[in-house]
Each structure stands twice: as C-alpha cells, then as structure tokens.
Amino acid sequence: MSKVNLGSRAGGDLSGVDLFEMAEKSVFRIVTKYGSLGQGHGTAFVYKQTLSESGSDLYLLTNLHNFDGPLGKYPQFVAEMQKGKPAEQLLSQVSIMIGDQQFEVDRIVAARGALTSHARKWIHDFAVCSIRTSIRDNLKLFAIPSGDEVRAGEAVFALGFPQDTDLGITEGMVSHVYGADDGKSEPGQYGDHEWQIQHSVLINKGNSGGPTVDKRGSVVGMSTWGDVRPGVTGINYSINVARVFEILRSSEEIEEVNIAKIYSRLIDLAAEEARYGR
User: Fold this and answer.
1) Which domains are present in the chain?
2) Tens of pLDDT along 30-43?
C-alpha cells in the first residue's frame, strides 16, 4: 500500500537555516542537455511524495521554460547537421539531478498548448513532472498554500541553483501581489503581471522554477524572472503557486506532454531540413 506525503505549514516562524535544510532534501537541479551543443539548467522542487515498499515517486513543480530550450535551438540543430554532425549527437533531454543521480524526464503536465505558444501567459509558465526513486523515507516538504496567503511587506526566501553554483537561499520582501487582470490596466503595466508576486529576492539564471517560501515554510510562489533592464534593481517576480494549483486541478486547462517524443521529432525535422531545405 502506498502512502502520500505532503508538506505542512509550520506552527511558528522558521529560520533561514531551517528552510535551507528542508530544501536540501526537496529542491533539485533540473538540467536540459542539447546534445553536443551544451546544456542549461534551472530548479525544481518536490511538492508531493508517494511512498511504497520499493521506494517513492516524487512529484516536482518547475517552470515550463526549463523545457522549451530545445525548441529555440532548432536553427542551430539544422546548421550543425548541414556541417555533417550526426542527428543522434544533437538529441535533447531533460533530467532531474539528485546528488550524482540523474533521472530523465519523458513526460510533463502543463497548461494546455503552453509549450509551443508564442504568447504564453506568465501564470502558464509551469510544468509538473514525476520521477521514480529508491527513497524510502518521508521527505520534509514545503507546504502548498490552500489560498493566497502572501501579502505585501512579508519576508520571503528563494531557494534554487543560480548560475553555476550549488543550492542557495536568498531573502527579500514582497513588494506587491498581483491578482487577475481586471481589463482596466494599460498595456505594459498591471496586465503584464497577472498572478505574479513582485519581491526583492534576488533571482538569477538557474533559479527558475525554484520555490519562493514564507517563514512558515509555505511555497507562495515559484521563482520565474528578474527585471534586468539597465538601471533596474531589486525587481523580481514569482508566479503565484496557489493559482498554479487551481489550474492543475482543472482537467480542461492542462494536458500531458510527451517531451521525449517532441525532442526526437524536432531532430527528425532538423535532419530533413538540413538535407532537403525548407
């Protein structure tokens, strides 16, 4: 018989040390390899664990943009094949790294149509994947909020793998919590930040998909992007996790995507174009 393990909100404030120790067991690096062209990485975190006698299934949440890198590299795949590089040397894959163990991800659950959308909403920049492991102990997981629990002025922490570093934690304050776009905002202002949490926590490349948590150990957001325009400092965004899970509970709004097949087909198309042209 299997047992489901979910995180629970702490009864009192946790220290940064407490939060980091929790993250060491449940926040992992997600790596996208572009064959011989190199790789990129982001962050994923476990929100549910299903245990059995043989091990456990870990369910992880991350940003969808940690999976769409190969789609953007299609022109490079074509160019490399035109130079004579074999197709098998360019095949992409995404893996979750737990220590030195690599778990390849073949399927994800995402917002319907979001992976290939050219106008993806920020709130749709999420993906769920699962991996089978030999872990037999309960992991201490961050709690998933039952509602919009975060407020402006609240201290929050981001956990993840920025740049080429190991797991790290940074602290900041929530500046603003955006809800649904009410249709009254001017383009480029409120409407662009629908269901986002603006905060001063540092977010760098590689943090994408990591949890933004409060002092009680609840995941209030998922680190997604930082404003890097010249002259801009301290403006960073996480998407609202409470809203993400509302979407995940609606079968009409989500779909399962076989990314392994998509990556394989992408290489097949690149090989055809390299040989015959468009």
Assistant:
1) 3-12+26-140+249-276 (2.40.10.10), 155-247 (2.40.10.10)
2) 999 999 999 999 99
